[in-house]
Amino acid sequence: MADTRLLALFVLLQVMCFAIREASAATCHPSGFVHGKGRHCNSSENGSENCCVTGKRYPRFRCSPPVSARTPAILRFSRFDNGEDDQRIALCDDRAHRDSELVVTLSSGWLRLGGTDRCNKKIRVVANGRSVVAKVVDECDSADGCDEEHDFEPPCRNNVVNGSPAVWKALRLNESIGELKVTWSDVLGHGHVAFYM
């Protein structure tokens, strides 16, 4: 009888350990903080009005939430070109992109989550019953910010998809909203969406 209780206790502990491990793998916690510096950021460059505030702490993430067939995210409006003389070079393909292109950036963890490099891959973004397929061309840095390299803007949240004006137009969204809850998924060859367990 004592052996049965001991075995039952052992099984219960194993199940609890498995559940805790699964729950912790499904979450993404800050890996530290970046401290704001009171410098001027050029918020008009990418449509953001978010500049670091002196003394404020901003969370940094080296991970993003798990990816699924309908990964919840925040779609933010983001300009990719600012005229002929002022274009940012994308990390993934080392070239500038136009606002008229269907392109997005992903939070750091999603760009290279679990060994999957999404650079130059396609994702499907779904909002309000409409969807669009866009190419991943850059990173929305979730780990660093509030410095000159990041134009004194805070680190990106860990669940962001920045979409070009063309993405917003394809989804028939009003750019003035600025950001919206959406879902996204990986797109395999020929437009097929990846399936996740």
Provide a descriptive summary of the structure in words.
- The protein has 197 residues and is α+β, with helices and mostly antiparallel strands.
- The chain is 17% helix and 25% strand.
- The protein has helices at residues 2-25, 108-111, 165-170; strands spanning 32-35, 57-60, 71-77, 103-107, 122-127, 130-140, 160-163, 179-187.
- Strands 3-7-4-6-5-8 form a 6-stranded mixed barrel. Strands 1-2 form a two-stranded antiparallel ribbon.
- Strand 5 and strand 6 (130-140) form a beta hairpin.
What attributes characterize this protein structure?
single chain; 197 residues; alpha+beta; six-stranded mixed β-barrel; two-stranded antiparallel ribbon; 8 strands; 17% helix; globular
Task: Give the secondary structure arrangement, pairings included.
Blueprint: H1 2-25, E1 32-35, E2 57-60, E3 71-77, E4 103-107, H2 108-111, E5 122-127, E6 130-140, E7 160-163, H3 165-170, E8 179-187
Parallel strand pairs: 3-7, 4-6
Antiparallel strand pairs: 1-2, 3-8, 4-7, 5-6, 5-8
Entry summary:
The protein is an alpha+beta fold. It is 17% helix and 25% strand. The chain has three helices and eight strands, in the order H-E-E-E-E-H-E-E-E-H-E.
- What's the total helix number? 3
Strand segment tally: 8
**Structural class based on helices, strands and sheet pairing:** alpha+beta
Report mean pLDDT, rounded to a whole number.
81
User: What percent of the residues sit in helical stretches (DSSP H or I)?
Assistant: 10-25%
Residue windows where pLDDT falls under 50 for at least 5 positions = 17-25, 44-48
Spatial order of strands in the largest sheet = 3-7-4-6-5-8
Q: Which sequence of SSEs, written as H and E, runs from N to C? A: HEEEEHEEEHE
Task: Label the overall shape.
Answer: globular
